[in-house]
Design goal:
single chain; 577 residues; alpha/beta; Rossmann fold; DHBP synthase; 3 domains; ten-stranded mixed sheet; seven-stranded mixed sheet; 19 helices; 32% helix; elongated
């Protein structure tokens, strides 16, 4: 005998509070309708009274999940097979627990995903944005496009892209460890069921608001996509959202745009020239998000896109690369006493604002940024077309400023500074472990120099340490005049300080002080003989006699000088340090 939720035989009157399956015993409707369909009808009424938006669909999907059948097969369930768990699950949905948590599955495009507590349930609106991304990738003339999904949650977007763009490689980033477990579970499940997705969805632990996420992909990504948190703090949301979705996937500052702004910054760093971004937002946030991806920041073709209900739902834009930035450059003739003060003031203000400047040094012109503003340093490297593998040296305005950046001066550091600074000697130290910066893959070291140029020193004394590299594009000789620098770097630089041609473009000498014995990484303006007058034990490229005397790791400047990582000749690779 089949039983309904209270353990009653079909047709018996239900206990108080339990709906009846028929108006009265012997009702004709009961004779022509299966028990399951009748119970579904009662469940629909209960869910509607509870405020569930789609009571019929939810009741039928719960019934199908409980009985292990398709929704279209509900009429085929005999009364004897009715499972009382149906009413237990209806009660959960009546309490506004998400349908997907009850069934354990969520449909998304062609996927059937595992979901549950701890992960954001993917919505139909996101399917439209995902479709836009897939269409864009298919239209690209790229053999194996690289895609980054920021805040992947269940992995819905990442897996859809991998399934529908078979040669795409998708990096799915998720900070929440609980959500990441669901993403990894879904990726594993689809590798088993759809073998060609194997190895093409990589799940990464990381916060997409951080500048440290996927640095190895800087400037190489074809598409960045994200459904980030975008609900303003304090907004009223349905119980299914506020009580069950993880808070980290919902709330995003007073205006709801904090995470979207972080996506914009990360996308700007990751995308290759010609790459695209797609970001979901709330239906009333279209105009505000449009201006997050403004032309003034370099974005092109920014557009609002509609969802299935014809509401603004996601913004898309393309990234032309650093040359597309609409920064208004100003050139100051600092060789003229009339413009010198105003030029220096403008350069200092630009650096403090996170912009780029070009300034003269005692070797060549350099492009510089605040060393403690990672986006500015990344913009500088992007402007040059150079990666993080060749980090930027740091210029300082005083020896005291240098001392604050290093772990230890070593046996010879202070004497070498006293003798050759300001001047064309770059010293590589072990960096202070307390530094909060990101100037590239430094391997725990920092290359410092104090330039012998009055304009540079005056700027540095006001800005503090600056990451400075030669003012040239990748593979082109460094600029010895401000006009040469402007021809190569264009409007990406905010302020150019023109003090006339550099009279001596001999690169600086680079000396590694991270080991027991100082070692010359590159000979330059200061000869080894002059260095040995201060430190007689300097080696000039010969192997260390004792392994204990070696630095912990070779400095990147040593690698770039021999392997030419920057693609520039040694003099062009000189980071004006």
């Amino acid at each position: 005998m089949s039983v309904s939720p209270g353990g009653r035989p079909p047709g018996d009157p239900p206990p108080a509070g339990m709906p009846s399956t028929a108006d009265s015993p012997g009702d004709p409707a009961e004779d022509s309708c299966s028990l399951l369909l009748a119970e579904i009808g009662l469940a629909v009424s209960r869910l509607a009274e509870a405020g569930v938006e789609s009571p019929r669909a939810d009741a039928e999907l719960i019934a199908a999940a409980v009985h292990g059948i398709k929704r279209t097969e509900l009429h085929m369930v005999p009364d004897s097979a009715f499972d009382a768990k149906f009413w237990a699950d209806i009660a959960r949905r009546e309490a506004r627990e998400p349908l997907q948590h009850i069934t354990g599955r969520a449909g998304f495009r062609y996927l059937d995903l595992a979901v549950g507590p701890g992960v954001f349930v993917p919505r139909p609106e996101t399917e439209v944005m995902t479709g836009w991304v897939i269409d864009k990738l298919r239209a690209m003339d790229v053999d194996a496009p690289i895609v980054v999904d920021l805040g992947t949650g269940s992995g819905a977007i990442a897996l859809s892209v991998a399934q529908e763009v078979p040669r795409a490689r998708v990096h799915a980033v998720e900070a929440d460890p609980l959500a990441r477990v669901w993403a990894e579970r879904n990726v594993t499940e689809y590798v088993e069921n759809v073998p060609y997705t194997a190895g093409r969805v990589m799940v990464h632990a990381g916060d997409f608001c951080s500048s440290a996420v996927l640095p190895e992909l800087d400037g190489t990504v074809d598409c960045v996509v994200s459904n980030p948190p975008y609900i303003p703090v304090g907004a009223v949301v349905p119980p299914e959202v506020g009580e069950y979705d993880p808070p980290s996937a919902l709330w995003s500052g007073a205006d709801g745009l904090n995470a979207i702004r972080a996506v914009e910054r990360t996308a700007r760093r990751l995308l290759r020239p010609g790459g695209v971004v797609a970001v979901e937002h709330g239906s009333v946030q279209g105009a505000a998000v449009y201006w997050v991806f403004a032309e003034e920041l370099g974005w092109r073709d920014t557009r609002n896109n509609k969802d299935l209900a014809d509401r603004d739902r996601f913004v898309t834009a393309s990234w032309p690369g650093p040359e597309g930035l609409l920064v208004m450059s100003t050139v100051y003739d600092v060789a003229s006493s009339e413009l010198r003060a105003s030029g220096i003031d403008a350069a200092v203000a630009a650096v403090r604002n996170g912009d780029l400047v070009v300034l003269p040094t005692d070797t060549v012109y350099g492009i510089g940024a605040d060393a403690f503003t990672p986006p500015a340093v990344r913009a500088m490297l992007a402007a040059k077309g150079r990666g993080r593998s060749v980090p930027s040296p740091v210029l300082v305005g005083t020896p005291r400023a240098a001392a604050a950046l290093v772990e230890d001066m070593g046996a010879f550091g202070q004497d070498l500074i006293d003798e050759f600074w300001p001047g064309a000697l770059t010293l590589v130290f072990r960096a202070s472990p307390t530094l909060l910066w990101d100037i590239g893959e430094t391997k725990g070291t920092v290359a410092l120099r104090m330039p012998l140029h009055p304009i540079a020193l005056e700027v540095l004394k006001q800005t503090g340490p600056m990451a400075v590299s030669s003012a040239n594009r990748h593979g082109i000789a460094p600029a010895t005049t401000a006009s040469e620098a402007q021809r190569q770097l264009g409007e990406v630089v905010s302020v150019y300080l023109d003090s006339g041609p550099c009279t001596d473009n001999t690169p600086s000498t680079i000396l590694d002080l991270t080991g027991t014995i100082p070692r010359v990484l590159r000979e330059g303006a200061i000869s080894v003989d002059r260095l040995r007058k201060v430190s007689s034990v300097i080696t000039d490229g010969v192997p260390y006699p004792d392994a204990a005397e070696k630095p912990a790791l070779p400095h990147p400047l040593e690698v770039s000088d021999t392997a030419s990582d920057s693609g520039e000749p040694p003099s062009a690779g000189d980071p004006v340090s």
